[in-house]
Amino acid sequence: MQTDLQYTRSNPTHLKTVKTLLTTIHQFSTLENAGIEELEVMYAKFLHALDYLKARPYSILDFVESGTGFDEDFVDFTSKITTIEIAMRDFISESFEELQNIETALDLLTKLEVILQRDSLKV
What we know:
Number of strands: 0
Number of domains: 1
Shape: elongated
Largest sheet: none
Number of helices: 6
Helix content: over 70%
Distance between the termini: 47 Å
Radius of gyration: 17 Å
Oligomer: single chain
């Protein structure tokens, strides 16, 4: 009998999707303690999308058990993340336009350092 990890290894596309999911979780988790109200709201929306994915009745590592369910749920999750990223990009642009000094800009960049690694947020 194969383990979930063995199943996942036999499907590199599924493994890439799981890696993308884990990277997204890591990057968005940095918003939890950003200390910026707008980002905390976006983090709450991220958690809502993640909670839905976690509540699904299959192991994300078992692409055989989940069938196409995980793929469909991941597309839905990605769509929700894209909406959050658009709001975040708008917030970041507006924030930098309103900044009065370099110290404040550097403070904001420090708080956003990890999340800004997302391709969709790179300028």
